[in-house]
Model the fold of this input.
Amino acid sequence: MTVHATFNGRLVMLGFGSIGQGVLPLILRHIRMPRENIQIIAADDAGAGVAAEFGVAHRVLPLTPGNYRSELGDRLRHGDFLLNLSVDVSSVALVKLCRELGALYLDTCVEPWVGGYTDPSLTVAERSNYALRESALALVRPGAGDPTAVMTHGANPGLVSHFVKQALLNIAIDTGVASVVPKDRAGWAALASDLGVKVIHIAERDTQVADSAKKPGEFVNTWSIDGFVGEGNQPAELGWGTHEKALPADGSRHNFGCGAAIYLNRRGAATKVRSWTPLEGPFHGFLITHNESISIADYYTTTEGGTVRYRPTVHYAYHPCDDAVLSLHELAGKNWRMQAEKRLMMHEIARGIDELGVLLMGHEKGAYWYGSRLSIEDARQLAPHNNATSLQVTAAVLGGMVWALENPTAGVVEADELDHARVLEIAGPYLGEMAGAYSDWTPLEDRGGLFAEETDQSCPWQFGNFRVA
Done:
């Protein structure tokens, strides 16, 4: 196994659910460090057996606004690393603390303190990922040499931002637009604009099936149930492209921040969109809010004289495993009151793949999907304590950690700012088949056959043509 980095500091892993348990063996394989330097802090003892298997210290210690500074302050010093894989612990609070201590940081989403997703005293806009992202970006201090804090670097958000860059390069080569890799944000945005990319879906279809079906009163999923339900209860959000003609009826803009996204006055888990992957073909996905829907739209924005000239529409279109869809249906039917039982699918998975990629539309060749096809069989051969979904996340966490160790004074950064080739080099061996496929599919395909639908036939890339009530 290739050793990508050597680390002599202490690593504190905060949270040890499916992602923590899956990434630990990858860290031990690819980052040379003493096991006694690793500490796991978790809200429960669910992963204690896995920690013991690898000889790593594990302690049950829920963090709160009242104790996180003292507990982590005793465990972190200058040059150490905080890997945050928890829920219900404020990412912004942790980044501020790491900056004070001189420690590196990585998480997979910008998380609020417990209740932040569903606090009825907050407005819809305040519960959005847009607001959470802006709170993290407020910590950016260009040129300050702050310890690196890699924000939102799992599979998505995270890995998919690197897929977008590779997809743009592939389309550029295939259409003869360009063959030189852009050197900066302006160059990448210019490339996307020159190619005519209007829409980017993070298009994912999970077909993993367990040998035991979902039971009534049980929520089943292939990754964090609390994480999925939390983000599903946030408002549906998407990056808002310059080609869009009008806001959706329940859509709103934000009156602060970068202005790259809008939100809908509805839960993401209650909103469906049309999308496409090569193996699945057309499907309905949930418009779950994610940081990458905003960061990608923001990163690829071009301006002239203070006026936005180009920006793609970007959103997540997620079809989870079938048992998770049934779980969401049941959850919605109970007016979003969580089921009494939860089951994270892992060892009982019998078959299936996670087809995770990015679908770029509007360019000369129509639509292009690029991403990872990872089967449960391959995932089990590649790494222990992973399924196909978790391994796509844990491989990305590993890639982000190595990048942070190689670039320790980058300050607060998002996935879009990292070297996509370096991250894909590290994560690639764990992603199964990396595939790209062109298609002439659009969201207007086979629409209006039996019932009249309001669609703009002249502009198939408008978000209004994607939406399903």
